[in-house]
Amino acid sequence: xxxxxxxxxxxxxxxxxxxxxxxxxxxxxxxxxxxxxxxxxxxxxxxxxxxxxxxxxxxxxxxxxxxxxxxxxxxxxxxxxxxxxxxxxxxxxxxxxxxxxxxxxxxxxxxxxxxxxxxxxxxxxxxxxxxxxxxxxxxxxxxxxxxxxxxxxxxxxxxxxxxxxxxxxxxxxxxxxxxxxxxxxxxxxxxxxxxxxxxxxxxxxxxxxxxxxxxxxxxxxxxxxxxxxxxxxxxxxxxxxxxxxxxxxxxxxxxxxxxxxxxxxxxxxxxxxxxxxxxxxxxxxxxxxxxxxxxxxxxxxxxxxxxxxxxxxxxxxxxxxxxxxxxxxxxxxxxxxxx
Length: 339
Known about the structure:
By secondary structure, this protein is mostly beta strands. 9% of the residues lie in helices and 38% in strands. The chain has one helix and 30 strands. Strands 1-30-29-28 form a four-stranded antiparallel beta sheet, with no helix packed on it. Strands 3-4-6-7 form a four-stranded antiparallel beta sheet, with no helix packed on it. A hairpin with a 2-residue loop joins strand 8 and strand 9. The longest helix has 29 residues, at 2-30. The radius of gyration is 27 Å and the shape is globular. The N and C termini lie far apart (89 Å). The model is unreliable at 1-46 and 51-57 (pLDDT under 50).
């Protein structure tokens, strides 16, 4: 009798062990892989509402030498084969910076040049007649109207006629021998044209839509005001058409705090932010004026806002910026693209 009970107990034990093994095997097979860890920096690639990336005008982005002094919310201007990056948010406290660096694309090297006479962030800048002009921006007490011109030949800054109003977070570009400043705080729709020969400013036609944290570019003799922010980011784009502004095709993705440049017969915008969702953007778009259409391009290797964009020769360069929307997380990133 005891032998029968013992045999039954052994048989029951073996049966339970077999069931346990089968259950474990099934669970392992049906358990999905762990979901990837969420990041605080959205990738947003390609730009929302646009076709898949096209081969024109670019290829793959290359990582370049980092900035000597990481900064964001600063312009980038091509002059005599280098890109000048003046001011911006810099340092641990994120205040305005007087640092100016020049990036040499051929050597992939940054070098410091004479600092700005006044620390600035969200300034506008343009090059004309061999000089670098830095206009307005935020100082310690809000928007400013001061204008400075840098001469690389003597490494010196000189004052120029101030803006007719205080302006920050606008955009600047050169058209027909004049330097234009578009939008910005406080007005949003104001435009101003500077005559370097006369050292004088005059009012231009008002933009149809207010915009700050905006960008500007000139392509085929036409001046564009692109995207930006005013009670939220906007995707609209305006072109100066004779005495007034008119709308052209909108960006595929609304953005503010980004850079733009004319390159390879297109206007290219890169990076930016959307404060309502605290998104930082990797997306890149190119505008074809003949088709009046934007197309998504190869996204940046990292999401950035407050970055500069400039074209030198056949290269396009995205310099500086912050990795976090609405915040100063300067990385000193630099990326380059060639056809």
